[in-house]
Automatic annotation (TrEMBL):
InterPro entries: Aldolase_II/adducin_N_sf, Cro/C1-type_HTH, Lambda_DNA-bd_dom_sf, ThiN. It comes from Natronomonas aquatica. It holds the Pfam family HTH_3. Residues 29-48 form the HTH cro/C1-type domain. This is Helix-turn-helix domain-containing protein.
Length: 299
């Protein structure tokens, strides 16, 4: 694991200080004056000036970087910019380069697993897409692990298999929903999970969750299990709101009708149809909430 801050410290700062020291020296400042402005020792300035510090060529070639450093040097030399202002401007510039820009690309190169993320990358944004997708993926991963360790869960897996899904807050398509690739299956009495959660790999359960959300449900997660009267009774006894929908009707219309009839529904179920297996769908605020409902059935 390598943090973007390491890229800043090891790649950006040596390059930044080298180029800035050179710009200041070009403006006929002494090593002592450069050292005072940058808050470093004269020996460090000497190393920068003589090319004894390793720099990053990609950063050095970036026109925005060069323009920014030149502006800092000019402002510091003329006194139009204080050292505090220069520090603040540099911090802002670094944050900008971290948001899907030059430093983000260097971070990706230094830590290849980040390349698996398809959307814009903003490590420091607490509500950013990157952080949110990883939170959702992690939530599904924890939920699946809990299901694997829940005694008797395999017996609840329908013949078509189960899937645990969780949507991003503003999800509109199945690509915004994380799920188990393939399906969770009952293999000789054990719930078998084929792989780590991914986005866009569940069609049916994700589509049902999205339909429920479009109909007014605030659920962000769902899990399908087999249907029987005992399961519904157990969930109702635990305080969950249940509602039936028509398995043979259009999914969007059927779910909209069910949510309209029971706006606070936690459980949607259908009792089967021609070629359609009866299935129960548990909804919740996140994967953990859905899994907790399933654990209620097994108590």
């Amino acid at each position: 694991m390598r943090f973007i801050e390491e890229v800043v410290v090891e790649e950006f700062l040596p390059t930044f200080r080298t180029v800035l020291a050179g710009e200041l020296r070009d403006r006929e400042l002494t090593q002592s004056e450069v050292a005072e402005l940058l808050g470093i020792s004269q020996s460090a300035v000497s190393k920068y000036a003589h090319g004894e510090v390793e720099t990053n060529a990609e950063i050095e070639r970036d026109d925005r970087f060069l323009e920014f450093v030149e502006g800092l040097a000019e402002g510091l030399t003329t006194g139009e910019m204080s050292r505090v202002q220069a520090l603040v401007e540099t911090e802002v510039f670094i944050r900008r380069l971290e948001r899907g820009d030059l430093l983000a690309r260097l971070h990706e190169a230094a830590y290849p697993p980040i390349a698996d993320h398809d959307g814009p990358l903003d490590i420091h944004d607490p509500e950013g897409e990157f952080r949110m997708t990883e939170r959702v993926r992690s939530s599904v991963r924890r939920g699946v692990r809990t299901l694997e360790n829940t005694s008797g869960f395999a017996a609840l897996v329908p013949a078509v298999g189960s899937n645990l899904v969780e949507a991003l807050p503003d999800a509109t398509t199945i690509d915004d929903v994380a799920a188990v690739p393939g399906r969770i299956l009952d293999v000789k009495g054990r719930a078998t999970v084929p792989g780590d959660p991914e986005f866009g790999v569940s069609e049916h359960v994700a589509s049902l969750l999205l339909a429920a959300r479009r109909a007014g449900s605030d659920a962000r997660a769902a899990l399908n299990v087999r249907y029987d009267d005992g399961i519904i009774q157990s969930l109702e006894a635990a305080g969950y709101e249940t509602v039936e929908f028509d398995a043979e009707a259009d999914l969007e219309d059927a779910i909209a009708g069910a949510i309209e009839a029971t706006p606070d529904a936690d459980v949607l179920y259908q009792t089967g149809g021609f070629g359609v297996e009866p299935v129960c769908y548990v909804l919740g605020s996140d994967a953990a909430a859905v899994v907790e409902a399933i654990r209620e059935i097994r108590r």
